[in-house]
């Protein structure tokens, strides 16, 4: 509930404006009366604020369909956000690739740019990423001043308050002040947010997949790439997105005598089921003279890609098949444990492994066999198509989320 009276009137007004804008964003199309009811505010307060937002070009009255306001017995126009009222840049700097996109308020992508990472050096990665941002804006005939927020995401442990990447062990990146460095390089005045790249994807799902997320108050987003993370979103319906940590489930120990992980332990989930682990196992097999199908698919001297690994699996490569099967089986056990522990309404799963229908079936089979039946948890599992720009778009969602939280004029 927001308060309409008090000693600190300007702050109350700002809080009301921000709440009303978020309500229109998350629940629009919606009537003024509905907003008043949901926020426990008076209709005149809503009308005053909405009129200001319409004048500012943030909110629009829809022509149709009209909704009957039963309480007052009159027709009431539906309101929604103006999708093109604001523009946001989303950036993912994964270490292996730099990807940037430009979106509007609703996450519609207006332009994209990407390039392979120039090296494993932090500064060089950042330079390449900022160059992409400039190129993207040039191609869209926009300037940096016309951007309302920039969201940046990166794998690893992020201090989102300070905008600092705390730890990225596999790249030897520690305490990198991303927010400061990006602001300096781009001379940006708009807000900049820094987030873990799996959390950014979860924000993206929250904000942009509204039909899927309808009535889902808690969900997990399992992201399998070089590492594995599974952030949780809680109480979406009330506060819309309180993220609990980065969900570093990649280091839960699945096989105590298993392969060594980058963290130093043995048998971590990501030492068995991440893309990096799968590719490393396949390269071991190639080095031993095995994996004949995969060998035939890979140009000499090139590392296998996940696409080629999946092709070799499908073609029945006798060395690749058990490597992938073990990875999927272990992920299935991990997911059953996560679900038993957190009982999310939905779990979104994004990973190259699950481009394969067979791997999807195997995963769900393992999950269902190992999930605890007595809790009655009925989690909806959704496979998300991996995309080069899903992280960048998620980072834009974080910037939008921040914009909605701080909007007060
Ligand atoms: Zn580990």
Largest sheet: 6 strands, mixed
CATH topology of one domain: Nucleotidyltransferase, domain 5
CATH architecture of one domain: 2-Layer Sandwich
Total strands:
18
CATH superfamily of one domain, please?
ATPase, nucleotide binding domain
Small ligands present = zinc ion
Q: Could you give the distance between the termini?
A: 20 Å
User: What form results from the Cα inertia axes?
Assistant: globular
Helix content: 40-55%
Average pLDDT confidence is 89
Judged by helices, strands and strand pairing, the structural class is: alpha+beta
Low-confidence residue ranges: 1-6, 237-242
Counted by DSSP, the helix tally is 15
If you compute it from the alpha carbons, what radius of gyration comes out, rounded to the nearest whole angstrom?
23 Å
Strand content: 15-25%
CATH class categorisation of one domain: Alpha Beta
């Amino acid at each position: 509930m927001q308060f309409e009276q008090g000693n600190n009137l300007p702050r109350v007004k700002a809080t009301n404006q921000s709440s009303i804008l978020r309500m229109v964003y998350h629940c629009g199309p919606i009537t003024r009366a509905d907003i008043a009811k949901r926020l426990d505010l008076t209709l005149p307060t809503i009308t005053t604020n909405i009129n200001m937002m319409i004048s500012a070009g943030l909110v629009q009255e829809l022509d149709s369909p009209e909704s009957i306001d039963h309480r007052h017995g009159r027709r009431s126009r539906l309101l929604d956000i103006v999708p093109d009222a604001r523009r946001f840049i989303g950036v993912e700097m994964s270490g292996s690739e730099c990807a940037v996109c430009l979106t509007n308020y609703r996450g519609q992508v207006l332009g994209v740019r990407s390039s392979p990472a120039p090296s494993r050096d932090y500064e060089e990665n950042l330079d390449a990423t900022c160059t992409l941002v400039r190129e993207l804006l040039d191609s869209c005939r926009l300037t940096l001043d016309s951007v309302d927020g920039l969201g940046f995401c990166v794998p690893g442990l992020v201090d989102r308050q300070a905008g600092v990447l705390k730890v990225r062990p596999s790249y030897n990146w520690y305490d990198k002040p991303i927010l400061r460095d990006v602001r300096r390089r781009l001379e940006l005045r708009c807000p900049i947010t820094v987030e873990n790249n799996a959390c950014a994807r979860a924000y993206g799902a929250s904000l942009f997949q509204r039909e899927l997320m309808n009535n889902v108050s808690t969900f997990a987003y399992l992201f399998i790439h070089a590492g594995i993370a599974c952030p949780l979103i809680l109480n979406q319906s009330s506060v819309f997105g309180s993220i609990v940590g980065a969900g570093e489930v990649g280091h839960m120990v699945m096989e105590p005598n298993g392969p060594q992980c980058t963290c130093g332990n043995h048998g971590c989930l990501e030492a068995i089921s991440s893309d990096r682990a799968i590719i490393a196992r396949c390269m071991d097999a190639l080095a031993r003279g095995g994996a004949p199908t995969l060998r035939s698919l890979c140009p000499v001297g090139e590392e296998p890609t996940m696409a080629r690994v999946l092709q070799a699996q499908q073609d029945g490569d006798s060395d690749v098949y058990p490597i992938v099967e073990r990875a999927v089986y272990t992920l299935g056990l991990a997911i059953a444990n996560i679900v038993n522990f957190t009982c999310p309404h939905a779990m979104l799963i994004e990973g190259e492994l699950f481009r394969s229908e067979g791997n999807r079936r195997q995963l769900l089979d393992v999950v269902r066999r190992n999930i605890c039946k007595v809790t009655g948890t009925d989690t909806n599992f959704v496979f998300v198509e991996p995309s080069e720009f899903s992280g960048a778009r998620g980072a834009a969602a974080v910037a939008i989320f921040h914009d909605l939280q701080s909007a007060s004029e």
